[in-house]
Design a protein that fits this description.
The complex is a heterodimer of chains A (317) and B (265).
Chain A (H helix, E strand, L loop, with lengths): L6 E14 L4 E14 L3 E5 L6 H8 L7 E6 L2 E2 L3 H4 L2 E4 L11 H11 L4 H14 L15 H12 L6 E5 L7 H16 L3 E6 L2 H7 L2 E6 L2 E7 H8 L2 E7 L11 E6 L2 E6 L4 H10 L3 E8 L3 H15 L6
Helix pairs in contact in A: 3-4
Chain B lengths: L2 H18 L2 H23 L5 H34 L2 H6 L5 H33 L6 H25 L4 H26 L4 H4 L3 H11 L9 H6 L5 H28 L4
Helix pairs in contact in B: 1-5, 2-3, 2-5, 3-5, 3-6, 3-7, 5-6, 5-11, 6-7, 6-11, 7-9
Classes of the chains: A alpha/beta (317), B mainly alpha (265).
């Protein structure tokens, strides 16, 4: 993959191996991933648990050193102070100094950017209100709920008015309203010209919020591109429900049968529907419903993960 | 004020606040004050001319030993706690150089130890006065020397905590402290014609290594001078503090080198 000079984040053949346990067992968390994140985009980083999302994000945040390959942000190597100054980062399940209040926590993070005095106070107050913690600013963080901690985490990630915001599972621990507020915040940041890079395994959140996605599995990027392109490339589906005593085979490239109550459910490619329905009628079975359906990111994700595992590309211990 | 200075101040402040709230500190302070109280009881039972000797000995011991214990316990816990509780993630993702983080931890701990030891020293001076003594410049110098020792031990604890678990760091730091306090004894054993380090093959190089590689922590002890009324010179105190600073700088630099390479998984 060639280097895209307009990309805000550029990752090339990034590898990370860990040595774990007494026997220093080798675990290849990243097996040479490459992707670009253009400026001004909301970029979703999608993958099942243990796929390598957090490892990638920690490398971008300068918390983990890569084994080989390169990762740059704003054209500079990750981990540089100049990168950190323009970056906001929310770790997965953030923790804070529990004896500080929410307000003191934000003032502390402001000081790490050299912000002090009225500017730091004003910025902290604005962010407490923005994430819905204005009423709890004086409460000790140890008394915050999980959702409040997540909101405080988002606030600290925005304290320096960053150009790029990296969020690791930002919807984790939030109720549906909280998740919608985070999505709205992402759109707001995008409108303000910011770039948002966030990981999640909640597909609906990614589909609703992102312009572009990369799907990672077992330390490898298996798909990347705009959400609409990926979904279009996967093609539409036709969902067919059959009532049959005998077992029926799905045509090649289709999914099923899946037993739903006393019905058999198939997901077919549009081109194979006619011949399949004819075969069903010939067998004496009855057709209950035939419904065309748009492919969702979830369909694509499940399809990609299954085909990737089926090909045996994995191998991470 | 430069950004680095503001960052250092913030990191030190947060460490100071965290350490003074630690339960272990409150417990150890209570023990130290109980020691002082016990010295008053014991001195009341001693011969009249020995009463001041008892409170002086107990005071120096309380300050020195408990200062070191506090330094070891909090020194090994605080960096580890940042990693264990993951508060370090949000800090190091900011434009905070890793060496500054280690230095901030050290300075915050040092500030806490200075405040704690000053309080204990104040209590000790009152006990000395209660027994008819007059704390003077030598007492202040003795306390300053204890600061020097405790700050050196803190740097050892912070060094180990950059890569080891609290239990291992605690064992290593306490071992370092014991060897440091034994350096003159080992030197003496090495200078003799017979004895452990001379008779057992292979032990002499180890003895030499201990003597050359470890700081002599007895240079920070001034109880004999106080007991016998021998003046402690300013130049000696300055030299001892310089000795402590030099070792601390080396140990913290080594800690920074390790910390720079660490992955925070």
């Amino acid at each position: 993959m060639s280097i895209d000079s307009s990309a805000l984040i550029s990752v090339r053949d990034l590898k990370k191996e860990f040595r774990l346990g007494v026997r220093l067992r080798r675990v290849d968390a990243l097996k040479g991933i490459s992707f670009d994140v253009p400026g001004g985009a909301v970029f979703g980083f999608l993958g099942p648990n243990g796929a390598g999302k957090t490892t990638t994000i920690k490398i971008l945040a300068g918390l983990i050193h890569s084994s080989s390959g390169s990762a740059s942000i704003f054209g500079e190597a990750v981990g540089a102070s100049s990168v950190g100054a323009r970056l906001g980062y929310l770790p997965e399940q953030p923790y804070f100094y529990d004896y500080l209040s929410g307000r003191e926590t934000l003032l502390f993070y402001a000081s790490l950017f050299g912000l002090k005095g009225d500017l730091a106070v004003r910025r902290s107050e604005e962010l407490l209100d923005r994430v819905g913690l204005g009423h709890a600013g004086d409460r000790a963080v140890r008394k915050y709920s999980k959702g409040m901690m997540q909101r405080l985490g988002i606030a600290q990630a925005l304290i320096n008015d960053p150009e790029l915001i990296i969020l690791d599972e930002p919807m984790s621990g939030l109720d549906p309203i909280g998740r919608k507020e985070v999505r709205d915040l992402m759109f707001e940041l995008k409108r303000a010209g910011k770039t948002v890079f966030f990981s999640s395994h909640i597909l609906s959140d990614i589909e609703m919020a992102c312009d572009r996605v990369a799907i990672i599995n077992e330390g490898q990027i298996i798909e990347s591109g705009s959400v609409s392109d990926l979904v279009a490339r996967a093609g539409d589906l036709v969902e067919v429900f059959i009532r049959s005593e005998a077992s029926l085979e799905a045509p090649e490239g289709s999914k099923g049968p899946e037993l739903v109550g006393d019905l058999h459910r198939f997901e077919l490619k549009p081109g194979s529907v006619d011949s399949f329905l004819a075969q069903v009628l010939d067998s004496g079975a009855s057709i209950v419903s035939v419904v065309p359906r748009k492919t969702t990111l979830e369909d694509l994700f499940v399809q990609e993960i299954h085909s990737h595992r089926g090909e045996g590309k994995g191998g991470a211990p | 004020m430069s950004r680095l200075f503001v960052q250092l101040l913030s990191l030190s402040k947060i460490t100071f606040l965290e350490s003074i709230r630690h339960r272990a500190l409150i417990g150890l302070l209570t023990v130290a004050l109980a020691f002082m109280g016990f010295s008053l009881v014991l001195s009341a039972l001693a011969l009249r001319d020995q009463a001041l000797r008892v409170v002086t000995n107990f005071g120096v011991f309380s300050l020195s030993f408990l200062g070191v214990v506090i330094a070891i316990i909090l020194g090994v816990i605080l960096v580890y706690k940042e990693i264990e509780r993951k508060t370090i993630y949000t800090v190091l993702a900011k434009p905070v150089p890793r060496p500054l983080f280690v230095l901030g931890k050290y300075l915050g701990l040092a500030a806490m130890l200075i405040v704690t030891l000053s309080l204990l020293a104040g209590a000790w001076f009152m006990v000395v006065m209660f027994r008819g003594g007059e704390p003077g410049i030598d007492h202040i110098y003795a306390v300053t020397l204890i600061f020097g020792e405790v700050l050196l031990v803190t740097s050892v604890a912070v060094f180990f905590s950059t890569f080891a678990s609290p239990i291992l760091s605690g064992i290593f730091t306490f071992g370092f402290f014991l060897i440091g306090r034994s350096v003159p004894v080992i030197e003496h054993m090495l200078s003799r014609r017979t004895g452990l380090f001379v008779d057992v093959p292979g032990l002499r190089p180890i003895g030499d290594l201990l003597v050359t590689g470890f700081p002599d922590l007895t240079v920070f002890q001034a109880s004999n001078e106080l007991l016998h009324g021998i003046p402690i010179s300013t130049s000696y105190v300055v030299q001892a503090l310089g000795y402590s600073c030099s070792y601390s700088v080396v140990l913290l630099s080594l800690g920074v080198l390790i910390f720079q390479r660490r992955d925070f998984i």
